[in-house]
Amino acid sequence: MARPKRNLHAAAEESTTPPDALTPSQSVAKVIKAEGNNLYSCSLPSQQIVLVELAARFRNTIWIKRGGYVLVDLTPPDEKKGKVEGEIANVVREEKEWRKQSYW
Prior knowledge:
Layout: H1 6-16, E1 26-36, E2 39-43, E3 49-54, E4 69-74, E5 86-91, H2 95-99
Parallel strand pairs: 3-5
Antiparallel strand pairs: 1-2, 1-4, 2-3, 4-5
């Protein structure tokens, strides 16, 4: 039997609606390169390159293409472990809806 699709639909539905406001640690970033093992190099609006990890709920359900946009939640520098600087909190799928927000 095939796996149920409710996890896929829930993750897809969650990524279509943009949040009303961003926290200070969140930022919209452009995906530059897939590094492997659910790690991605992203470019922040300040042109800084960061290495971020894909959230567990999006793994094997949502595909992220190079040049796409993601919502990155950066960890504070004192809590950082290794090279990973944050996590992908959301994937921008409906870019037209996201561009209407004030933080874009």
